[in-house]
Write a structure and sequence with these properties.
The chain is α/β, with parallel strands linked by helices and 154 residues long. It has a single domain, classed as Rossmann fold (3-Layer(aba) Sandwich). Helix content is 27%, strand content 27%. It contains three helices and eight strands; from the N terminus they run E-H-E-H-E-E-E-E-H-E-E. Strands 3-4-2-5-6-1-7-8 form an eight-stranded mixed sheet, sandwiched between helices. The relative contact order is 0.24.
């Protein structure tokens, strides 16, 4: 089973945290699928990523284009991503099934700590994925920097 990292967003917004994680993933040579639940929200993230600093350009695309399979980062609301990702980043409560964990080098689940529904959903995902044998890590930015606070499974 692969690693599943849970990112509890309490200080930075989703676009900033996602940008940081995408940079790290691309630096590893990974292709990434960002799985969301709402097409309009994915469009907002797409726009936010394009408007980032020029020196931190993140090549990406929004699913539905003719070059989806060539995108290093593909934002999608589908379970299957045509860009053959090494890493899956689930946002806004997107589902991640236990059987998916073995397919990826890493799965990142980002959730808004101020959203009770996302928090409850992430807790359920933590239990389901760690019970299935995934190495689950809980990361918090509460102190002002990212720190691993808990680990289960594996």
């Amino acid at each position: 089973m692969g690693d599943v990292l849970f990112y509890h967003l309490t200080r930075s917004g989703l676009p900033a945290a996602l940008g940081m994680l995408l940079e790290k993933s691309l630096a590893r040579g990974w292709r990434v699928a960002v799985r969301g639940t709402d097409r309009a929200r994915l469009d907002q993230l797409d726009q936010a990523l394009w408007l980032g600093p020029e020196e931190r350009f993140l090549p990406h695309g929004l699913a539905g284009g003719v070059h989806d399979a060539r995108q290093p980062v593909l934002l999608t609301d589908a379970v299957e991503a045509p860009n053959a990702p090494d890493c899956l980043m689930a946002v806004d409560g997107a589902a991640v099934a236990p059987e998916e964990v073995a397919r990826f080098a890493r799965i990142c689940i980002l959730f808004d700590g101020a959203d009770g529904a996302q928090l409850a959903h992430a807790r359920g995902q933590w239990k389901a994925l760690s019970d299935a044998g995934a190495d689950a890590q809980y990361w918090s930015e509460e102190s002002g920097r990212w720190e691993m606070k808990a680990r289960a499974g594996g």
